[in-house]
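Re: export button greyed out
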Amino acid sequence: MNIADNARLFSEVRRVLKPGGIFGIYNQMRETDGEFDFPVPWASVPQASFVETPATYKRLLTEAGFEIIWEQSYRDDALASFNQQTAAQQGSSALPSLGVHVTMGSGAMRKMANHRTNIERGLAAPKRDRRPGARISELKPRAPISATLAESSIVIYL
Amino acid sequence: VFNNLVMFDQHVPQNSLASIVPDLATGWSWKEDGTELTLPLHQGVIWHDGKPFTAKDVQYTWDMLTGKSSKKLRVNPRKSWYRNLADVTANGDYEVTFHLTRPQPAFLALLASGYSPVYPCHISPRDMRKHPIGTGPFKFIEFKPNEYIKVARNPNYWKKDQPYLDGIEYTIMRNLSTAVLAFVARKFDMTSPAGSPRQALCQSIRWAATRRPKRVETEVAGHHTQGTLEQRILAALREAGKDLDRLDRDDLAPVDEFHHAGRTATAAFAPRLSLHPGMHLFDIGSGIGGPARYFARHHRCRVTGIDLTEEFVAVVRALTRGLGMEGQISFEQGSALSMSFPPQLSTPPPCCMSA
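Workaround output, generated via the alternate export path:
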C-alpha cells in the first residue's frame, strides 16, 4: 500500500468501519531518514513513493480516532524471507516459475534487490519493537474504534 | 429468453398497430364482429428444456394473467390490461382464439408489447422465478442479485441462423451515474439507464470532470499496470505444472501475496484481527486477492477488496470466477481516499491493509 495522504485514508476507513471494528495495517514504514534506492516494488520513482515512520502512522491514527492496540516490527521476518528466497535459488540463476516477480512485472529483480538493500541499510526498517506484541495502553482511546497497526515487511507493525 | 405471439417490427422506429408482425403466431384474423382474435401458431418450436410449444402454453399464460389459473404470479400488474378478455381457447395444438367481451381493435397491441411473452405451462411460476424457460433466442444461464444476469445463445432456436450473438451479460449497476460512466468508458456495448438518461449523462460528465483521479494516483496505479498480468500468471502456473482447469486456491499462493513474507505474513497477521466466520472484512489495496482468498478460506470471512490498479481488479475478478468464490469475495476498482462504500458495513468489519 502506497498512499500519499494517510490522514485522509484513516478518516475514510473510520467512516466506513463499524464502531468497535478493527483496522489492521501491514505496510512498509520508514525507520530513518535517507534516500531509498529506486525502483522498489511499490514505486518506480521517489515522487510516487510514500513511506512514513511508525511514529507518523501512530500520530495520524490517533488523530483519526483510533486506539492502537498492538504493534510489531517485521523487519527480521522480511530479511529472513529474503534469505530463504536466496537459499532456494542457490545454484540456479533462473527464477522459479511461480513467484511475486510474475505479479511485479518488468524489473522485478531490480525492485526486489533494491528493496532488500533498503531494509538492510535500516532505512525502511526500524528495529523490532522493544515490547513485541505488547498492547500500547498508554495511548488513551479517543473513540470506540481500535486500530491494529501492522507495520510492513520492511517493517511491519501489527 | 422469451417470444411473444406477435411483436412490433423492430426495424420500424415508431410502434403502431400497422407495424405489428407475427412472432410465435404465424398470423392472425379477427371475427367480423371484432370479439374473437384467432392466431395460428408455429409448429416445431421447442422450449429451452426440449418440451414442445403448443396452444396449451398460450392458454395457460393468459389464464394466469387474468387470474383464472390455479398457478399465480407473485405480482401481476398486467391483470388490468385484460379486463376485456373473456377467455382463451386452444383449437388443437397449433391455434388459439382470444374471446373478448366487446370489440377492442387495439388488443393486438397488448399482445405485441414487451410485457407479453408466452410462458411454458409445464413449469410453475415459482421455478420460473429462479430459472426462466422460454422459446427465445437466448437461454437463461445465471442471475446473481445486484450483480449480473447471464444468457447464452439458444442453439436450437426456431428462427433459422439466429441469434447472432453467443450470449449477453447484463451487469447490474444501481447507481445510474456509475452505469453511464462505465458505458462512456466503453466497458459495455449497450446501456439503458432508467430515469432520465440525459440528466444522468450530464451529472456523470460533471462528476468525471470533478472527480478525475489525482495525478499521483494515476502514477501509483500506472506503476502496477502491465496489461498482460492475467496471461503472465496463467503462463507461470502452466510452467509450474499446474492444471489450469483444476486450479486450487493454494496454487496461487506464491504469486498472489504482494507484501513481504507473503502467505506467512498473512497467517501471522490474521490472529490480530479477531476474525470470526461470517465477519465482513475489507481489504484496502487488495491486489490480485491473495489475502482475500486466504481470509475467506481459512477464516470463512466475507471479503470486499478495493484497489486503485484497474488491471489487478480485472485479474482478481477473473480468478474469483475461475475459483467459484463469487459468493465470498468481491472486488472494486477505486481510491481508498474516497471510497464509494456506505458507512458502517453490515457486520462489524475489521479492515486489513496489505503492502
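Chain B touches chain A through 53 residues (CB under 8 Å). The button fix ships in the next patch.
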